Amino acid sequence: MASRIAGRLAELKIELPTPPAPVASYVPAVIAGNLLYIAGQVSAATGKVITGKVGADMSVEQAQMAARTCALNILAQAQAALSDLDRIRRCVKLTGFVNAAADFVDHPKVINGASDLMVDVFGDAGKHARAAVGSSSLPLGAAVEVDAIFEISA
Amino acid sequence: MASRIAGRLAELKIELPTPPAPVASYVPAVIAGNLLYIAGQVSAATGKVITGKVGADMSVEQAQMAARTCALNILAQAQAALSDLDRIRRCVKLTGFVNAAADFVDHPKVINGASDLMVDVFGDAGKHARAAVGSSSLPLGAAVEVDAIFEISA
Amino acid sequence: MASRIAGRLAELKIELPTPPAPVASYVPAVIAGNLLYIAGQVSAATGKVITGKVGADMSVEQAQMAARTCALNILAQAQAALSDLDRIRRCVKLTGFVNAAADFVDHPKVINGASDLMVDVFGDAGKHARAAVGSSSLPLGAAVEVDAIFEISA
């Protein structure tokens, strides 16, 4: 446990989940130069998808927790790809899709559930650019899906 | 005002807005290598969000103007991040989300409001790859959201 | 026909379509450093847009074929941009938007129609990170839209 970020995760009492297997013909992570692309991770914890239509049958607070599980899955995938999260220099970009009712307006609050985790874990290096938008439907009925780009050291 | 792009903006009589503060836990711009990622900017002018459901209570023409405000906010964020827009080598990619009715089909025309501004300001270097899609809902009820990637000089 | 990928396409009996012209103010492909960004390609074959609302008036199987046409258009654009697809080192990321009913859950299966083609053509180098999400509407009523990032050799 000499890793700085592993230590930070322990401090935050965060245990990363087993990285979910892709539900389709792709891979969870690709490195291109100094960028690590993580495939869209749906809201799921301990193998169970967190479903819901935010603003209809799910509250903003519940959806924030769902977004947090997306971010945990992103970190789990990054760890599997890099072996050591200390190789991450910066969280560059998150794109968050919220399975939301047509009149929903609080997407930013929902995706904060993912963004805040990045800052908790990486500090200033966790501060990222972001897009948060509504989707009329998401894979497996998930409440939230988030993908990510990290800058890594060579 | 020795800056080439600042001069071009003046020529076009474009005054960049104050870059909007993120409504959530993220930053408006991140540089990774030669790429500048700008967070999703919603349609808003002088602090007021331009709301609407395109194809229902908003016309394509109104939505184009809304998309243009997204692009102005993107340029304002880029300027704040880079100090000088002359550091931009190329507009690489825009992703435009249109808060649209389910039977709407003119997303490309709407996002042209953002794309055309890039070409007006940067000329050939403003020509970018793009995705334009429909969203069933957007943050704060915004009519349009656009994020951007630029290539910059070191 | 010394090109390896051109040979592979012939082997698969895949003839790339004429790359569709953008329906708006942008370009189909931009190279930034070692990354090639391909603009969102809608489902269209021989100039005709494949329209539909997946899960309502279109089946998953039909939508997979629609997604495959997006991928063919992506390859056609990449070929036009690079002259030789052998310059592609890796398919890095696909983002797939499915024009879907609000209760649709099989986006991953749909976008496999695009992902599988990348793997068929490029082998391991075709394995990419991916996001698959639902859109309430897409340009021209298209059933599917996919954009792409490739890593290329200099």
Overview of this protein structure:
3 copies of one chain form a homotrimer. The longest helix of chain A is centred in the middle third of the chain and has 23 residues. Chain A is globular, with a radius of gyration of 15 Å. Chain A has a single domain, classed as RutC-like (60s Ribosomal Protein L30, Chain: A), CATH 3.30.1330.40. With 154 residues, chain A is an alpha+beta fold. The mean pLDDT of chain A is 94. In chain A, a hairpin with a 2-residue loop joins β3 and β4. Chain A has a 5-stranded mixed beta sheet with strand order 1-2-7-5-6, covered by helices on one side. A two-stranded antiparallel sheet of chain A has the order 3-4. Chain A starts with a helix and ends with a strand. Chains in contact: A-B, A-C, B-C.
Kindly report the CATH topology of chain A. 60s Ribosomal Protein L30, Chain: A
Interface with most residues = A-B, 37 and 29 residues
Order of helices and strands of chain A: HEEEEHEHEE
Unreliable runs of chain A, pLDDT <50, ≥5 residues?
A: none
What Rg of chain A do the Cα atoms give? 15 Å
| Oligomerization state | homotrimer
Domains counted in the coordinates of chain A: how many?
A: 1
CATH domain class name of chain A: Alpha Beta
**Count of DSSP H/I helices of chain A:** 3
The CATH level-2 architecture of chain A is identified as: 2-Layer Sandwich
Q: Helical percent range of chain A? A: 25-40%
